[in-house]
C-alpha cells in the first residue's frame, strides 16, 4: 500500500513537472531556442502572483486572470523586445542570451523579493483529500494540478493540430525560411507563440506557488526537471512529456522514501539511465 | 495603360554583388509570360525581387498601379502575388490539405470568388485521395500540385512559378502546364521561370530571355527564332 | 565568423606574448607580498578555467553549463587520493589530470546523445548529479565537507609564504600550459578542421572531419585540466565541500560571462574577461545582485551587438584610429 501511495503521489507530481515543461518544449519546437531562463520565468510569475494577491488582498484564484494577462504581456514583450533581435543562425548566441537573462532574472527577484522562501495559500482546498482506494488518500489540489496538465496538453494539441495558427506554427517549426518566403509573417507567429508559452508558464507558476515553496534561486531546478521530462518523453511529443514528468515524479518520490536528500538525485539518475537506454526518448518524433 | 504587373528598371543587389541591373518586364491578366535564362542569369533574383524576400531592390514593381517595392513579403502576398517556389517547399509536418490551407491564411481576396478546397481538388483530383497524409510523402509531380494549389489559395492576381518542371517527368510537366494554361484562360497572370527554353516558349504567350542580370531578348513566343533566342540565352 | 587576430596569421605573436609574461610573472613572488600573490593565483585559476570553456564553446561550438562538475570532481579526487589512498600529494595532484580525462569520456558519451542545443542543460544535470553524489560519498564529510590534513597542505610548502609562492607558480604554470596547448591545437591540422567545423558542420563532415571526435577531444582536454585546477583550488581553499567545490556560480556562471564579454573564440578573450572580472569584483562585489545583473546585461549586449566581445571591439577601435591617423598624415 505504501508503494501504491508513492506511485500515485509521484504520478501526480509528474503533472506539475509536465506543466513546467510545456513552455520550454514549445519555445524549442518553434523558435529553436533552448530557453535557459525558463525556470526563472516560472518563478518570476509566481512572484507576480504573490504581488498581485498581496496588493489587492485577494486569493490567487481571484487574481489568476490578472496574472495570466500580465504573463501574456510579458511574453509579447520578451519576444518583441529581446528574442526578436537575437540572431539564431548560430545556436550558441540565443543559448547564451537566455543564460544571461536567467542570471538577470534571478538577481532581480533577489533584489525585489529577498531570498526568503515564499508560498501562496488558497485555504482549505490545499489540505483537502479524497479516498480514491481503500486507505489511499490523495490531495485534491494534487489531482487538480494533474488535471490541469492533462487539460493544458489537450488544449495545446488542439491548437497545434486543429487551428490555422497551429498550422502556421508547424510550418515555421519545419522551416522558417520557407515559411517566410511564402509570405507567412513569421515574426507575428513567434510573438503569438511566446504569448502562449508565457500563459502556460503562468499556469504552472500559480499551481507551483500554492503547492510548495519558491525562492529567487529555485528556477534552475524547475528548468532541469522540465528538461528531463521533455528528453525522456521525446522532443516534440507533449503526451510524451507528461509521461516523462510522471517518470521523474515517481523516481523522486521513491528516492524520497530512502531519505529526503535522495529525492532530487534519484530523479536525475533515472533521467540519465533512460538517456543511455533511449537517447531519442520514449516517444520520438521523426521530424529531423 | 500599363500592364497588370509592371516591372521597371529593377536592380537587385546582395551586398556588393549586383544580380539584376535594370530589368523591364510586363505581365497582363490572362497571359503566360515565360522568363528563360541559364543558371545565374538572374531568374531567381527576379523572383526574389518581386517577392521582396532577399536583396536590396531599386526601381519599380507595380501591381495594378500599386507599388510593391519596399513592402514586406506578407504584404506582397496580400497584394496579390502568389509564389510557387523552386523546390516546392512543402512542409513535412503538414498534411497535403494543411499545406494547401496554409496558402489560404496568407492571401487576401481581390474582387472575384475566392479559391476554395473544392476548386483546388477539381483542378488537381489526384490530390483528393492523399489529402490527409504528409505533403512530403507524395511524388514530385503531386508535390508540385500542392505548391501550385497553395499559391492559388492566396487568391493571387499574378502567379509566379519558379522552375516547376525541375526534376519531373515530361508527361507530368505537360499536365501541370495544361492546368496553368487553363488558369490563364480564366484571367490569371502567370509568370513562368524556366531553364527549359523550348518548353517555356511552347506554353507561353510572350517570353523574356535573361542574360547576366538583364533582358537580352523578348517578344511573342510563337514568333521566337530559336537561333536568336539561343544566342540571347547563352551570350555570344 | 568575424576577423581573427589570434587564429589567423602566425602563432609567433601569441607565443612571444606568452614568453614575455612568463619572464615577468615567474620572478614576481620575490617582489610582492602574499596577498598580491593569492590574488594573482586566483586570477590564474579563473583565467585557465575561462580558457578551457572558450576552447569548448568559442572554438568547438559546444556550450557546457557544467564546467563546475570537473572542477569539483578534481578537488574531491585530490582529497581522496591523498587522504584515503595515502598517495604522495604531488603524485595525487598529477593524477587528477588523467582522472579528469577518464571522467569526461563517459560524460561526453552520455551528453553527445542529445541534440546539440540540449547539450548545455544536459551538462548542467550531470554537474548537479556530481555535486549531489559528492555529498553522499563516505569519508568526504557529507554536505558540509571536510578539511585537508595539515601534512598534505604542508607538502606544498612548510611555511605559509612558501606555500603561497609554490601554489602561485603552480597555477601560473598550468595557465601557461593551457594557453600553450590551445595555441598548439588551434594551429594543428585538427585545429583547422575544428575551425572548419565551427563554420559549417555539414561541410566539415564532407571534408572528412568527424565533428563528434573533435568535440570529444576538446571535452577530454578541458575535463582533464579543469580537474587539475580543482585540485589546485582545493589546496587554496584547504577543504572540499559540495556547494563550494562544485560552485555553479564560480566555475560556470562567472566563467561564461568572462569569456562572452572578453571575446569568444579568441585566446585573448578569456584573458581580458578574467582581468576585468577580477578588477570589477574588487569594487562591485558589495553590490551582489546588481553586479550579477550588470554582468548578465553586458553578456547579452555583447551577444547581440558584438559576439566577438571586447577583443573585437578593441581591434575595431585600433583599426579606426590607424585609419584616421593615415588620413591626417595624408
Task: Explain the layout of strands and helices.
The complex is a heterotrimer of chains A (288), B (236) and C (330).
Chain A: H1 2-31, H2 38-56, H3 60-81, H4 92-113, H5 124-127, E1 129-133, E2 136-139, H6 140-162, H7 164-174, H8 176-181, H9 186-211, H10 219-233, H11 238-258, H12 262-277
Antiparallel strand pairs in A: 1-2
Helix pairs in contact in A: 1-6, 1-9, 1-10, 1-11, 2-3, 2-4, 2-9, 2-10, 3-9, 6-7, 6-9, 7-9, 10-11, 10-12, 11-12
Chain B: E1 5-14, E2 17-27, E3 32-37, H1 43-51, E4 56-63, E5 66-67, H2 73-79, E6 81-84, H3 96-106, H4 117-123, H5 140-152, E7 158-162, H6 170-185, E8 189-194, H7 197-203, E9 206-211, E10 214-220, H8 226-234
Parallel strand pairs in B: 3-8, 3-9, 6-7, 7-8
Antiparallel strand pairs in B: 1-2, 1-4, 4-5, 9-10
Helix pairs in contact in B: 3-5
Chain C: H1 12-25, H2 34-59, H3 67-84, H4 89-111, H5 119-134, E1 146-147, H6 150-154, H7 160-186, H8 189-199, H9 201-206, H10 211-237, E2 239-240, H11 242-245, H12 248-262, H13 268-284, H14 289-305, H15 309-329
Antiparallel strand pairs in C: 1-2
Helix pairs in contact in C: 1-7, 2-7, 2-10, 2-12, 2-13, 3-4, 3-5, 3-10, 3-12, 4-10, 7-10, 12-13, 12-14
Short description:
By secondary structure, chain A is mainly alpha-helical. In chain A, 75% of the residues lie in helices and 3% in strands. Chain A is built from 12 helices and 2 strands.
| Major sheet size, sense and barrel closure of chain B | 6 strands, mixed
Average pLDDT score of chain A = 93
CATH topology of chain B: Rossmann fold
Structural class of chain A: mainly alpha
Radius of gyration over C-alpha positions of chain B, nearest whole angstrom = 17 Å
The CATH level-2 architecture of chain B is identified as: 3-Layer(aba) Sandwich
Distance between the termini of chain A: 44 Å
Helical proportion of chain A, percent range: over 70%
> Which overall shape of chain A is indicated by the principal axes computed on the Cα atoms?
globular
Secondary-structure element string of chain B: EEEHEEHEHHHEHEHEEH
> What percent strand of chain B?
25-35%
* Number of domains as seen in the coordinates of chain B: 1
Q: Which CATH class of chain B?
A: Alpha Beta
- Mean pLDDT of chain B, to the nearest integer, reads 92
Oligomer: heterotrimer
Please count the helical segments of chain B: 8
The CATH homologous superfamily name of chain B equals: P-loop containing nucleotide triphosphate hydrolases
Amino acid at each position: 500500500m505504501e508503494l501504491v501511495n508513492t506511485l500515485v503521489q509521484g504520478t501526480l507530481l509528474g503533472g506539475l513537472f509536465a506543466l513546467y515543461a510545456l513552455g520550454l518544449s514549445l519555445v524549442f519546437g518553434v523558435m529553436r531556442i533552448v530557453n535557459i531562463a525558463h525556470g526563472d520565468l516560472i518563478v518570476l510569475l509566481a512572484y507576480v502572483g504573490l504581488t498581485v494577491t498581496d496588493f489587492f488582498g485577494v486569493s490567487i484564484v481571484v487574481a489568476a486572470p490578472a496574472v495570466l494577462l500580465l504573463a501574456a504581456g510579458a511574453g509579447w514583450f520578451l519576444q518583441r523586445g529581446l528574442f526578436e533581435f537575437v540572431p539564431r543562425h548560430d545556436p550558441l548566441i540565443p543559448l547564451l542570451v537566455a543564460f544571461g537573462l536567467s542570471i538577470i532574472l534571478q538577481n532581480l527577484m533577489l533584489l525585489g523579493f529577498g531570498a526568503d522562501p515564499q508560498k501562496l495559500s488558497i485555504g482549505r482546498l490545499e489540505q483537502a483529500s479524497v479516498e480514491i482506494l481503500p486507505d489511499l488518500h490523495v490531495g485534491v489540489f494534487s489531482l487538480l494540478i494533474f488535471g490541469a496538465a492533462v487539460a493544458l496538453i489537450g488544449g495545446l494539441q488542439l491548437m497545434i493540430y486543429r487551428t490555422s495558427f497551429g498550422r502556421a506554427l508547424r510550418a515555421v517549426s519545419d522551416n522558417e525560411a520557407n515559411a517566410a518566403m511564402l509570405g507567412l509573417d513569421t515574426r507575428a507567429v513567434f510573438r503569438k507563440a511566446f504569448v502562449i508559452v508565457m500563459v502556460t508558464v503562468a499556469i504552472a507558476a500559480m499551481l507551483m506557488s500554492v503547492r510548495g515553496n519558491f525562492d529567487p534561486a529555485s528556477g534552475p531546478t524547475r528548468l532541469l526537471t522540465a528538461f528531463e521530462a521533455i528528453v525522456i518523453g521525446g522532443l516534440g511529443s507533449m503526451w510524451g512529456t507528461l509521461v516523462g514528468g510522471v517518470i521523474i515524479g515517481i523516481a523522486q518520490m521513491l528516492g524520497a522514501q530512502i531519505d529526503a536528500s535522495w529525492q532530487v538525485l534519484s530523479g536525475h539518475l533515472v533521467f540519465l539511465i533512460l538517456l543511455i537506454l533511449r537517447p531519442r526518448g520514449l516517444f520520438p518524433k521523426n521530424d529531423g | 495603360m500599363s500592364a497588370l504587373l509592371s516591372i521597371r528598371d529593377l536592380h537587385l543587389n546582395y551586398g556588393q554583388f549586383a544580380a539584376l541591373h535594370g530589368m523591364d518586364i510586363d505581365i497582363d491578366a490572362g497571359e503566360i509570360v515565360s522568363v528563360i535564362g541559364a543558371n545565374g542569369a538572374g531568374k531567381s533574383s527576379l523572383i526574389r525581387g518581386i517577392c521582396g524576400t532577399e536583396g536590396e531592390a531599386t526601381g519599380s514593381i507595380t501591381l495594378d498601379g500599386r507599388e510593391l517595392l519596399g513592402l514586406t513579403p506578407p504584404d506582397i502576398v496580400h497584394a496579390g502575388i502568389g509564389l510557387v517556389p523552386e523546390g516546392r517547399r512543402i512542409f513535412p509536418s503538414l498534411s497535403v490539405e494543411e499545406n494547401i490551407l496554409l496558402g489560404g491564411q496568407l492571401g487576401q481576396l481581390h474582387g472575384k470568388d475566392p479559391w476554395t478546397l473544392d476548386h483546388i481538388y477539381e483542378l488537381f483530383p489526384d490530390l483528393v485521395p492523399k489529402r490527409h497524409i504528409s505533403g512530403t510523402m507524395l511524388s514530385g509531380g503531386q508535390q508540385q500540385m500542392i505548391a501550385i494549389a497553395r499559391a492559388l489559395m492566396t487568391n493571387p492576381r499574378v502567379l509566379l512559378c519558379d522552375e516547376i518542371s525541375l526534376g519531373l517527368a515530361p508527361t507530368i510537366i505537360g499536365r501541370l502546364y495544361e492546368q496553368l494554361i487553363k488558369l490563364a484562360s480564366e484571367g490569371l497572370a502567370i509568370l513562368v521561370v524556366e531553364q527549359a527554353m523550348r518548353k517555356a516558349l511552347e506554353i507561353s504567350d510572350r517570353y523574356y530571355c535573361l542574360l547576366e542580370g538583364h533582358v537580352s531578348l523578348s517578344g511573342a513566343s510563337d514568333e521566337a527564332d530559336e537561333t536568336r533566342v539561343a544566342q540571347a540565352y547563352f551570350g555570344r | 565568423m568575424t576577423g581573427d587576430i589570434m587564429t589567423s596569421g602566425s602563432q609567433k605573436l601569441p607565443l612571444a606574448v606568452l614568453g614575455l609574461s612568463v619572464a615577468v610573472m615567474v620572478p614576481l613572488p620575490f617582489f610582492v607580498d602574499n596577498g598580491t600573490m593569492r590574488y594573482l593565483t586566483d586570477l590564474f585559476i579563473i583565467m585557465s578555467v575561462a580558457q578551457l570553456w572558450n576552447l569548448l564553446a568559442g572554438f568547438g561550438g559546444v556550450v557546457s553549463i557544467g564546467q563546475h562538475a570537473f572542477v569539483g570532481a578534481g578537488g574531491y579526487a585530490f582529497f581522496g587520493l591523498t587522504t584515503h589512498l595515502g598517495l604522495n600529494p604531488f603524485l595525487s595532484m598529477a593524477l587528477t589530470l588523467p582522472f579528469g580525462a577518464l571522467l569526461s569520456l563517459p560524460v561526453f558519451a552520455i551528453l553527445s546523445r542529445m541534440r546539440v542545443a540540449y547539450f548545455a542543460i544536459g551538462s548542467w544535470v550531470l554537474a548537479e548529479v556530481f555535486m549531489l553524489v559528492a555529498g553522499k560519498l563516505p569519508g568526504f564529510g557529507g554536505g558540509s565537507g571536510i578539511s585537508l590534513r595539515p601534512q598534505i597542505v604542508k607538502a606544498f610548502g612548510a611555511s605559509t609564504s612558501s606555500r603561497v609562492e609554490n601554489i602561485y607558480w603552480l597555477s601560473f604554470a598550468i595557465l601557461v600550459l593551457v594557453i600553450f596547448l590551445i595555441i598548439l591545437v588551434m594551429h594543428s591540422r585538427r585545429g583547422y578542421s575544428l575551425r572548419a567545423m565551427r563554420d559549417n558542420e555539414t561541410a566539415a563532415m564532407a571534408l572528412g572531419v568527424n565533428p563528434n571526435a573533435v568535440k570529444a577531444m576538446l571535452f577530454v582536454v578541458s575535463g582533464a585540466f579543469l580537474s587539475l585546477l580543482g585540485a589546485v583550488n582545493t589546496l587554496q581553499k584547504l577543504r572540499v565541500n559540495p556547494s563550494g567545490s562544485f560552485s555553479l556560480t564560480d566555475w560556470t556562471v562567472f566563467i561564461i560571462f568572462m569569456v562572452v564579454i572578453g571575446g569568444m573564440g579568441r585566446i585573448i578573450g578569456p584573458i581580458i574577461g578574467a582581468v576585468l572580472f577580477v578588477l570589477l569584483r574588487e569594487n562591485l562585489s558589495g553590490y551582489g545582485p546588481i553586479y550579477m545583473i550588470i554582468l548578465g546585461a553586458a553578456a547579452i549586449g555583447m551577444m547581440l551587438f558584438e559576439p566577438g566581445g571586447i577583443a573585437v571591439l578593441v581591434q575595431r577601435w585600433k583599426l579606426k584610429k590607424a585609419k584616421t591617423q593615415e588620413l591626417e598624415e595624408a
